[in-house]
Specification:
The protein is an alpha/beta fold. The protein has one domain: TIM Barrel, CATH 3.20.20. It is 49% helix and 16% strand. The strands form two sheets. It has an eight-stranded parallel sheet with strand order 8-5-4-3-2-1-11-10. Helix 2 packs parallel to helix 4 and helix 10 packs across helix 11. The longest helix has 23 residues. 48% of the residues are buried.
Amino acid sequence: MPLAHMKPMLKKAQLEKFGVAAFNMIDYNSARAVVDGAQELNAPVIIQLSVKTINLWGFQPIAEWVRMLSDSVDVPVALHLDHCKDLNVIKNCIDAGWTSVMFDGSSLSFKENIRQTKLAYEIATSAGVGLEAEIGAIGGTEDDKFVAEDDAILANVDECVEFCQHFPDLAVFAPAIGTAHGVYKGEPNIAYDRLTEITSSVDIPIALHGGTGLEAEQFSRCISSGCAKVNISTMHKLQFIQGFTGLKETQPNLGEPIPFIDAQYELMKKGVKDMIALFGSQGKA
């Protein structure tokens, strides 16, 4: 089917209390694993990209890859731009066919975040494209952005309410609730009370960033509290590498590349299906 829009996909997830998995693709093979895994479980799914991945492959090739994959299945596939501060990149993604984009102003002051998010919001909504926005500082490493755990800042509930009043048509809202990008160095300290306060005050689907490494019970609590979009990046990247290295360990003399690509695909697809089942989106297409 044609590329889907993220906003109605996430609104349904919010209302029905399940999470839509959002995987950061690396290349065509990783995107293929995401789409095929979703198709096998009849689940909606989001393919998202960091700016550095877009810089590697280009706007048009990525859009064509994902569009072609989406056309080959009958489950909703959204194409989303992950953490981005550059309005020109946002415009180029929209022109190439992205169905949603994210403006990340979380490192700005509250007022400046609102001001710059308004610019992105106008660009996206005028093009009929959904926007994700963020406040608070999520710890860890994402793309080329690093936030030390000590510098991570939980989103303020009153600021969340005020922020979302400026953007009533946001596709999804990403407040910092204690999760972190990358690999957790200790036990994740999720502010469930803060999340519940936000979701009871803001009627917009919530994005859970830093999903890799959370336990099943943590995912369940976050999703039942209103997190409709669950980001998985680090897991997907690690499996991208492990698909190759695992086969190399068992068959060190293998010199044909296609078995490595197949092994990578199968490992990544299994990871995709595991997350879809965990988030409750199986059969929700």
